[in-house]
Write a structure and sequence with these properties.
Phosphorylase Kinase, domain 1; two-stranded antiparallel ribbon; 2 domains; 13-stranded mixed sheet; about 350 residues; D-amino Acid Aminotransferase, Chain A, domain 1; globular; alpha+beta; 8 helices
């Protein structure tokens, strides 16, 4: 099926084959976005459903709706985090607006073509043929990178100086790609393996260069506002003309480690503005990390929401309420996707797939 070709109603497009992504942020009206107005999300064919997002068909574009679901260890918890999806879309739109000079992106609009019920948490995006590599950039030594370094002295095949400590800033940001797993965990790979997956050395070089430049730009901006971007993940695709385009979400608390700069200390794990707060809680419950995930207590829900909202306010330099007002978001901070009619929507295999995983 060609890039941008409309799918039959109820058909699932797996994200490794192609995706549904955007171009540029237009605060007011999404001018220039040629999308048909719709009344409700239920009017739209469901393309795919993931741990966090639903994708709906808009012909040559897609409606990406970020829910309030949260997952740890690849399992979705039954408790939503109010406003989480709206923060993810707000932060993504903020970065899309500011990084177009580095690489084109898939953003079209946060208003035009977006049903009223999902305003603030959804964007209209261009469809792309997504590349089968997660483009991870690390500026600090943490998470799986720290474990890899402890075991081998390297991260994704990149040798690092001896004697580094947990959470230490790296001499220079490094590109540490990973696979995209439809189910289970992504696997870290080196640059040569990433080149094999995309099938073109020049394209792999362009991915690495774009990811590193995006990280440097964002890290400088965030640092000036009291946030350290320890690491982050980008996803790229190709448009119908073969142009490299940034897609998915970008530099959000779900795809990044955000640390408060004023409490940063080398040699230990860091407090964060991302879902590490929920991971830490989950790890301390005795849960075996197999489905079903435990319900999240009210205090952890409130603490998580507060961290996400603060991350937006710091990065964007405005209250989160300004985003909600600008996009005409409804008052209810939690949204649930409409039920899928029998025989339609995403197949079971797609529910645990890549969209919003």
């Amino acid at each position: 099926m060609a890039v941008g070709e409309e799918l039959p109603k109820g058909h699932v497009r797996y994200p490794n084959a192609s995706s549904f992504q955007v171009d540029r942020f237009n605060k007011a009206s999404g001018a220039g976005a040629k999308v048909q107005a719709v009344r409700t999300v239920a009017d739209l064919p469901l393309l795919a459903s993931g741990k966090v997002r639903e994708m709906y068909d808009l012909g040559d574009r897609v409606l990406m709706v970020a829910s309030d679901r949260i997952s740890t260890y690849d399992v979705v918890h039954p408790t939503p985090i109010p406003d989480k999806g709206r923060v993810l879309s707000a932060i993504s739109a903020f970065w899309f607006a500011r990084t177009g000079q580095i690489v084109a992106n898939h953003f079209v609009s946060a208003v035009a073509g977006v049903p009223e019920e999902v305003r603030g948490r959804a964007i209209v995006a261009r469809k792309l043929r997504m590349l089968p590599v997660e483009c991870v950039v690390r500026g600090y030594l943490s998470g799986s990178g720290w474990k890899d370094y402890q075991a081998t002295g390297a991260v994704s095949g990149i040798e690092l100086p001896p004697g580094l400590c947990e959470s230490e800033r790296l001499p220079t940001p490094i590109f540490t790609p990973s696979t995209k797993a439809l189910e289970g965990h992504d696997e870290a790979i080196d640059f040569d393996a990433a080149t094999e997956l995309v099938g073109d050395r020049d394209l792999a070089d362009r991915l690495r260069s774009a990811a590193l430049e995006l990280y440097r730009f964002a890290a400088e901006h965030a640092s000036a506002r009291g946030i350290l971007v320890a690491d982050t993940k980008f996803e790229f695709g190709l448009d119908a003309d073969g142009q490299l385009v940034l897609g998915d979400e970008v530099l959000t608390p779900d795809s990044s480690r955000f640390w408060p700069a004023d409490s940063y200390q080398v040699g230990r794990p860091q407090p964060s503005y991302d879902k590490q707060y929920v991971r830490d809680w989950a790890a301390g419950t005795g849960w075996d990390k197999a489905p079903p995930a435990p319900a999240i207590p009210d205090d952890v829900v409130a603490g998580t929401r507060a961290r996400y909202v603060e991350a937006y306010a710091r990065l964007a330099g405005e209250p989160f309420a300004a985003w909600l007002e600008r996009t005409g978001a409804p008052q209810d901070p939690v949204w649930a996707p409409p039920a899928v009619a029998a025989g339609g929507g995403a197949a079971a295999g797609a529910v645990s797939g890549r969209p919003g995983g």
